[in-house]
Structure formats: C-alpha cells, structure tokens
Amino acid sequence: MKKKIIYGAICVALVLIFILGIKIVFRPSLPKPEVTTGQRGELGIDKNINEETIDKYLFRKDSVYRDVRMLDDPGNYEAIGGDSKLSGFVKGFEVISLPYIMPVNNLPKEVGDTYIGDTLFSKNDKGNYEPNYEESLEILEYYFPKDKNIFIMCGGGGYAGMMKNLLIDLGWDEDKIYNVGGYWYYDGKYNIDVKETKNGITKYNFWKVNYHEIDFDSLSKIDG
Length: 224
Prior knowledge:
Elements: H1 2-20, H2 38-42, E1 63-67, E2 88-90, E3 94-95, H3 98-101, E4 121-123, E5 129-131, H4 136-143, E6 149-154, H5 158-169, E7 177-182, E8 191-193, E9 195-198, E10 201-204
Parallel strand pairs: 1-3, 1-6, 6-7
Antiparallel strand pairs: 2-8, 4-5, 9-10
C-alpha cells in the first residue's frame, strides 16, 4: 500500500510539472578550487572553473560574481592582445576594480604602469596588508561576502589572482574563492558586449556595466 501511495504521489508531481511548466534546475556541485598548471597556473587560474566552464556555474544563489577590471585602465593592455577599457563582461558579474582595492605590481613589462592612486589597502614593511581607511574591510566584506562562493574574473587572469590572494591573506576561506580567468578568452553564451564599433567609430557603453565605484573622498582615512 505504501509503495502505491508513493508511486501515485510521484506521478501526480510529474503531471503537475508538465502541466504548469515548472522548470527544475540541477546545479553542478562545485569542485574544490584547484590552480591549473603552466603559465595560467602562475596567474592562479582555476583548473576546473574557468572561462571555458563558467557558464555551468553562473546564477547560483550561494555565490557572487566579481569582475575586477577598471572601466578604463591606464595600463597598455593592447600590447599583450587585450583591451585597456572594459570591452565586455559575462552576464551576472559585477565590476569592482582591483587597482582601487590594492596596489598593483609585477605586470608584464609591455603593459607598463597602471593606476597608482589611493587604495583601500596597502602592504606594510612586513608584507602584510593593512587598511588605509576605516571602512576598507567593511567595503571588502560587502562586495566579497565570506559566506558565499566567490568567482573572480578580469581581462587575462592576473588581477583576479591578485584579488584572490588578497582575500586569503585577510582571512577569507580559500576553498570558497575561484579565479575563473580572463574575459578576453571567454566564448560562452552569456557575453555582454560593451565595446561597439559602427561606421569606423568605436565607443564603450559603460552604462551596461553593474559597476561599484569607490569614493575615497567619502571615506575616513587612517592616519599613520
């Protein structure tokens, strides 16, 4: 009798799903972050979740998606086949710029210097990151919540790797953070173009970007 009741309940559920058009979404389980090998590994790009596979892991409620490029980077990324301006992004990713969060160094020599202004954090003489503003940690925790999986992307993978290392150094769980690589190599179905060329004229539609600005003038500087 119990088996008949269970079987009947399953049949009813399947009929309702068919009639109502209920969509069941099966999310793949998240593999543990694992840095790949070779040159991409030197940037810290993940072996399993990267530009080729990120589409399978988008739109999760237990995760946040951050692109850490600048809208218009002073660095000459065209010299390495990229774009100094944010030419597009993957749907679901929000932009908060790494060079405003921490000093950037060790870029390819062809790129030259990037932004060198105010940052939320800087390194002390011992190589540890310290906040430059009273709100620095609060801002970081707001955009990179510790209770979520964090997927980080940039242009080529370098900024994303730096961002991941910063979070780990400041106490974030490294098993929740993925450097998913560079937008320049993304060829999935959730691409949002920002760069537009018509009649030989190129413009960047930054209004499409969910961009989070850091207004240093509104923050409280830590003296010393």
